[in-house]
Amino acid sequence: MGYITSAALEETGYVVLDSYNQELDPKEWLDIEYNDWKSSGDTRFAPLASAFGEIECNGFWNHVPPRTDKDGVWIPSQVEKAPILTRRAQEPGANVGRCRVIELQPNTYADCLYNLHQDDNNRLNPDGTGWVVRGFFNLSDDKDSFFVLRDNRTDPSGETRIALPAGAQLLIDTQRLWHAATHVGPDPRYCLITSWTSGPELDAYIEKYHGNPHAQNVEVAQDVLDAGQAEQSRRIAARAAALAARGRIEQAAMSEA
Fold it and tell me: According to the lineage, what is the superkingdom (predicted)?
């Protein structure tokens, strides 16, 4: 049967939407409550919608009953402090799952490459329903920072690097693409992340804001790209070796028990 997907995402897995003037909006993300929740870097998250309307960030499938990343419950205390961010997340009219603001501390391009990951948006998602993707609205003005997208975590060919000034809006199939942000700093980066269900509402939203599947790549010096790629390989190999060693230690302990 297959899932309902957005044709606009078929070619590259992402679109860049028209930017909006973030300077006209208050900095609501500074007023909401954050949880320490680590994801692709030194991060905290402030949920606006969660599985049951509580200030927590767990995947919907880790609750009872477990379910897919749809039908998020808005958190009254957070929505009251961030009504404009809430309206932005609701604007497409598509079903909303998790909705939260990420706070990311400064990192390097090498950190970003090591932290590249795919999301598990569609765990438990019934066949024949809308495919869950994610919207990213950059809130802070991070002109020197950029989002990195890859089809393959360790393959730099075809890497996409998208600039992140205030008001930048991206829509990404984050279960398809490996992704993370390089944030130069010096202050934290803030971004509104919303899980949306694909369908006619989301298609109309993409069309309204002229979704472009071909972003202009942020230019990065070749020596920085090469060093980042080498460091990613080194860290992945070191982690694999550490896990293998731990496995051997645990296996030896079990045999002695």
Answer: Bacteria
Q: How many helices (H) and strands (E) does the chain have?
A: 5, 11
User: Among positive and negative, which fits the CA dihedral 185, 109, 48, 36?
Assistant: negative
**Both structure tokens of 233:** 């390989």
pLDDT reported for residue 230: 97
Phi-psi region of 2 (alpha: psi -120 to 50; beta: other; left: phi over 0): left
Q: Can you name the residues that pair with 15 across neighbouring β-strands? A: 171
Query: In which domain, by residue range, is 126 found?
Result: 7-220
pLDDT tens track for 189-205: 999 999 999 999 999 99
| Domain contains 103 | yes
Residue 232 tokens read as: 């990613």
In a domain, 227, yes or no: no
Which residues lie closer than 8 Å to 242 by C-beta, 6 or more apart?
A: none
Residue 74 domain-assigned (yes or no): yes
Closest CA relative to residue 139, chosen from 3, 19, 18: 19
Amino acid at 188: P
When divided into structural domains, the chain yields a total of 1
Of the chain, the percentage scoring pLDDT greater than 70 comes to 95
* Torsions phi, psi for 145 (to 5 deg): -100, 165
CATH of residue 68's domain is: 2.60.120.330
Copy the structure tokens of residue 142.
């991070």
Q: What is the pLDDT of residues 232-246, one digit of tens each?
A: 999 999 999 998 888
Amino acid of residue 177: L
The reply to whether 112 falls in a domain is yes
Residues 6 or more apart whose CB falls under 8 angstroms from that of 157 comprise none
